[in-house]
Amino acid sequence: MTGRTVVVVGGSRGLGLGIAVAARDAGAHVTVVARDLSSLGDLDGDQGHATDEAFAEKVLAGRNPDLLVLTAGAVPPMAPLSGHTWETFSAHWHADVRIAFTWLRAALRVPLAPGSRVIVFGSAAELRGSPLSGGYAGAKATVRLITGYAAAEATGITMTTVLPVITPGTTVGETAIRGYAEKSGSTPEAFRAALPAAPTPESVGAAVVRLALEPAGSLAGAYVVDGTRLQPR
To answer: Of 89, 141, 169, 185, which one has the fewest beta carbons inside 10 Å?
Structure first.
């Protein structure tokens, strides 16, 4: 990825930070977009809110990335359906869906250059459900849908959705592990140990770098990331 420009929205922690570090280590110039840039170390950052449409267009026009990665989103409030309010149930529609809409719209309007790639993070929860996290699974399904809508409008921009399974070591992953361990009468340690081929932020970062190195126009659509593998959906 030497010489390429990468923007990672939500790259200050978890999967986003894993991707930012992997791209940096592969030779790319990486910019992280986040509200808090204090954890970035030697990575460059643009501070702002990921739902700000004017900010998104400013970042893309200024950075002109070869690769845009969207990982930002809310941490799921964990409760059974009867324990949710509409505000907690709909949290991911106002965060994850809006962030995807904001940056995909900006990528089309700026626009990004032909040959560029956009990778949007959804979740494998959309395939399996997530009964303790309110509207999370449905919101992530909508993220994949609108990525497809944007791909149909784009000229020369490859757009891909990545659907990670529960990933230990991330805020969202550890929140899910604690919630579902309690529901099943287990412990977080036992639940975590029983996850099959669980990815890590580092393995997801490496998978995204491999995806970004594929020829422009290839590997569109959606892929589940499980361990170190990208599996088409």
So the answer is: 185
Q: How far, in Å, CA of 34 to CA of 42, rounded?
A: 15
- The average pLDDT across 57-74 equals 98
- Which helix (H) or strand (E) segment holds residue 93: the answer is none
Name the helix (H) or strand (E) containing 90.
none
Domain boundaries, the chain: 5-225
Cα distances from 83 to residues 41, 77, 133, 138, 183, in angstroms, run 39, 10, 10, 18, 13
Tell me: cis bond preceding 111? Omega within 30 of 0 counts: yes
Q: Where are the alpha helices (DSSP H) in 31-135?
A: 53-63, 86-89, 91-92, 98-109, 125-128
Cα angle: 196, vertex 200, 202; to 5 degrees: 145
Q: Are 82 and 32 in contact (CB under 8 A)?
A: no
Give the CA angle between residues 84, 89, 94 to the nearest 5°.
Answer: 150
In this structure, how many other beta carbons lie within 10 angstroms of the beta carbon of residue 231? 12
For residue 143, give the nearest of 156, 125, 117 by alpha carbon.
125
Q: What does the pLDDT look like over 105-128, one tens digit per residue?
A: 999 999 999 999 999 999 999 998
**Distance between CA atoms of 182 and 168, rounded to whole angstroms?**
16
List the CATH code of the domain at 5-225. Answer: 3.40.50.720
CB atoms within 10 A of CB 227: 15
* DSSP-derived pairing of the beta strands 44-47 and 67-70: unpaired
> What pLDDT, on the 0 to 100 scale, is given for residue 14?
95
